[in-house]
Amino acid sequence: MTNRYESAAAALHDVLADGMTIAVGGFGLCGIPSDLIEAVRDAGATDLTIVSNNMGVDGKGLGLLLEAGQVSRVVASYVGENRLFAEQFLAGRLEVEFTPQGTLAERLRAGGAGIPAFYTKTGVGTQVADGKPHEDFDGETYVQERGIRADVALVHAHTADTDGNLVYRYTARNFNPLVATAGQITIAEAEHIVDAGELHPDHIVTPGVFVQRLVQARERVKDIEQRTVRLHAA
Question: How far is CA 17 from CA 21, 22, 35, 64, in A?
């Protein structure tokens, strides 16, 4: 059953604790649960492990949690847009597990599906595979990767109904459906919330059975990491 809360802070107030693993949807600044990330920052939980494709940028998205010193470990596939991330990593204040992007997606999907581990060729022969079990299948070597199950999952949707069913918008869908299934408790913020039954069943991406808490997202300007423009041809 999905319960609706009046704010992101209210949805998180009895959930967060120091040392938690939190999976967060989004790709760069696209489709990130901004309200929920800010609520985590304001709650002050520390020693967090963050699982996300990347850590936002300096001063935005998950970069806010780095600035607040709340993150001790990161599982991500790309972190190149965040200067503070690099500084904390190089200074030894941040533990980082780099995971190929497709492998990260599959680790989240596996965790949500109750699959504890799987084998992939990606990363074999590189540092990604160091210390992990290997196995040969049909003459090829594969490395074992563990599924990810987070204490809390935070996602952003375009539209939700009061039963917690979620619909995403275009590329803002990205990692959100995978993250939504991988949490012991999943909290979704949605730009629009409609009554149960208003969403067409064929349009639902994340069924409400995966979502325990729902909050209305605040209206805000959607940030763009790198705005690129060009002059129109004369």
Answer: 10, 10, 18, 18
Integer angstrom CA distances of residue 7 from 56, 134, 213, 214: 22, 46, 11, 9
β-pair partners for 136: 141
The predicted structure's pLDDT at residue 230: 76
Measure the CA–CA gap between 132 and 99, rounded to whole angstroms.
13
Q: What is the DSSP letter of 171?
A: G
Sign of CA pseudo-dihedral 194, 7, 206, 1:
negative
Q: What is the DSSP letter of 44?
A: T
The structure tokens listed for 77 are: 């596939």
Query: pLDDT tens, 189-224?
Result: 999 999 999 999 999 999 999 999 999 999 998 887
Residues 212 and 163: beta-carbon distance below 8 Å? no
Rounded CA separation 41/53 (Å): 19
Beta bridge partners of 97: 75
Cα gap 35→147, rounded to integer Å: 27
Structure tokens at 133: 């079990």
C-alpha span between 105 and 184 (Å, rounded): 17
Closest alpha carbon to 204 in 185, 222, 188 = 188
Q: How far apart are the first and last CA of the chain?
A: 57
**To which H or E segment does residue 120 belong?**
strand 117-120
Q: pTM to 2 decimals?
A: 0.94
